[in-house]
Amino acid sequence: MDPLIKSAKEGDHLAFAMLFKENYPFLVKYLMKITMNPDMAEELAQETMAKCIQKIHLYNGQSKFSTWLISIATNAYIDQCRKQKRENQWKGQEEVFRKLKWHFESRNEEWNDALEALGKLPVDVRVPIVLKHYYGYSYDEIGAWMKISSGTVKSRVHNGILAVRRELKLGEETESRHTRQRTTK
Amino acid sequence: MKKQKVVILDNEQQNNHDLDAIHELQDGLSKVDQFPVYTPDLQWFENMVIIEKENNRKKLRKELSLFLIIALFILSGIIVSFYQLPFVFLFIQIITPVFIVFYTIMGSRKKVKINE
Questions:
Q1: A97 has a pLDDT exceeding 70
Q2: Which of B106, B84, B102, B83 minimizes the C-alpha distance to B94?
Q3: Which of A63, A130, A150, B88 could share a disulfide with A143, CB 3.0–4.6 Å?
Q4: A14-45 confidence digits (pLDDT tens)
């Protein structure tokens, strides 16, 4: 195990601080991708760090520290969404990633249509897509973090990609040809 | 045989479209990675750790004292019933294990049903 993590487990404040400082940009950027909201990403990053301090005794060093942070952050985000849903304070998806879009535009970056399509997907589909196709985690790992079966993760990722394809109008011609063929049969 | 070939080609095409969508997604997400994220200094993180640890300690103390108060309350109730109302004490002593056994059996039955 990393000596920094070992010291943090033994209660060293500075070791904890160094670990967090090292992983903070990675954590915020991950949260930005799944929340599509830079403010919420920073808020959740702090919540994740607080949970990490509480649960550091459970970290066994089998996975990378950043992977462990991702699993905690994913749970924190899903919990928050559930709470917000319960409180009926969920703002429209449009509003959720408006600020991220603004960030793109302010840096003269072209806003990616796929990202817009991803932002329109529900949280329980968006999160596994990012974890699978950007970070390369396995269906089993994602399922364990989201507390769902790996089969459910697989189908959510598949349906999500189909939705993105539909939004990007990828393969529409082939699909319409298929339906035409089916109807003529 | 011919039919099968067509199906394989269609699947390939579908997979290619999936890959195109995945590539576009990866492209967009990698742009998010290029955003500069403001990282506070080490002092800020250290303060956060200290405050959070103190909060956790307070929370633990609060929960522990609540647990002890409830435990003391239950225990004193049992002692009082033992000396003042022995029948009530006996009733509690009998009903508690019976309830635990019943609850465990019901729980395991439910699990078996789910697995079936």
A1: no
A2: B102
A3: A150
A4: 999 999 999 999 999 999 999 988 888 999 99
What's the token pair of residue A138? 């396995």
Q: How confident is the model at residue A171 (pLDDT cuts 50, 70, 90)?
A: low
- Cβ–Cβ under 8 Å, residues A174 and B14: yes
Alpha-carbon gap, residue A164 to A171, rounded angstroms: 11
Query: In this model, does residue A94 exceed pLDDT 70?
Result: no
Q: Classify the phi-psi angles of A109: left when phi > 0, otherwise alpha if psi is within -120 to 50, otherwise beta.
A: beta
CB nearest to B42's CB, from A18, A49, A118? A18
Query: Are B49 and A16 a contacting pair at CB < 8 A?
Result: yes
Place of tokens 């919990």: A79
Helical H segments across chain A, by residue range: 3-9, 13-35, 38-55, 65-86, 93-96, 98-106, 113-120, 123-133, 139-146, 150-168, 172-184
pLDDT for B80-104, tens place per residue? 888 888 888 888 889 999 999 999 9
What does the alpha-carbon distance between residue A161 and residue A167 come to, in Å, rounded to a whole number? Answer: 10
**pTM, full prediction:** 0.77
- Tell me the two tokens of residue B18: 């999936």
CA distance A167 to chain B (A): 10
Burial of A34 (0-12, 13-18, 19+ CB in 10 A): buried
Of B27, B46, B53, the CB nearest to A112: B27
